[in-house]
Amino acid sequence: MGFFLETLLGGLMTGMLYSLVALGFVLIFKASGVFNFAQGAMVLFAALAMARFSEWLPKWFGFESLVLANVLAFIVAGVIMFAVAWLIEWLVLRHLVNQEGATLLMATLGITYFLEGLGQTLFGNSIYKIDVGMPKDPVIAFENVFQGGILINQEDLIAAAISAALVTLLSLFFQKTSTGRALRAVADDHQAAQSIGIPLARIWVVVWCVAGVVALVAGMIWGSKLGVQFSLATVALRALPVVILGGLTSVPGAIIGGLIIGVGEKLSEVYIGPLVGGGIEIWFAYVLALAFLLVRPQGLFGEKIIDRV
């Protein structure tokens, strides 16, 4: 029982990180109808900015505090992501309003490769580290309850707590603020929202900025775990099954979908992997997403689309 709970807890913590990345997809799709394939590149670009500025700022200003370096680097990287989000909306998206979905998808693919190339030009192409002081050593808990206790990775636990806190703040932002209500109105009907005076361009800038902050937090966490390297952009691919499972238009769906995928990966790798030769953790999420596409294409919490002719 202890081992099962240990695996389950590890899956929940990993799933929370998947949810954080998936949230970037959902936020932009809800507000603009754009499937942002560049979300992975935004995570990479944000992680590169934070990693490099946390290294550069102490040299430029002559201080040695790791905490101060990380705080300042986070702020600078946040400003950069706000600028990137504004430029994407100003230079690309506002010129593609009411275009076909395939056109918008190709535009985000172009943004992906541009951000990856720009990141390499500005910050280099080596492997960098982000050290935000999270403990790396695992601890054993509940020794009095289960024989041998439960092994808990402290870094994963803190990362999951940060992800949960950000998701909670974003949920409150959407539900309790006037800007959040405007975002939901735009998500429901662009033309109706515009007819009552909601400026679509401003709303899209806001939602892309929020997605940039989400990408920064995700990049910081994943960069701390895996190191900042260009393969970090593929983290977004791990979040694709999450948005398919939860629904492209649902914030709660991104959370629940991430938890289901995270737990499913861990349990299948431990209990089914030995029977099929291992490696199931790599493809489990995609097979589950394919099954949902066949049975419920809109996902668990997505809105069912009915076309009347």
From TrEMBL:
Tell me how this protein sits in the membrane.
Multi-pass membrane protein
**Transmembrane region(s):** 7-28, 34-54, 66-88, 157-174, 203-222, 242-263, 275-295
Pfam families reported for this sequence? BPD_transp_2
What InterPro entries does the annotation carry?
ABC_transp_permease, BCAA_transport_permease
For whether the record's keyword set contains Transmembrane, the answer is yes
Q: Where in the cell does this protein reside?
A: Cell membrane
Keywords of the record, alphabetical order, are: Amino-acid transport, Cell membrane, Membrane, Transmembrane, Transmembrane helix, Transport
Q: Which family does it belong to?
A: Belongs to the binding-protein-dependent transport system permease family. LivHM subfamily.
Q: What is this protein called?
A: Branched-chain amino acid ABC transporter permease
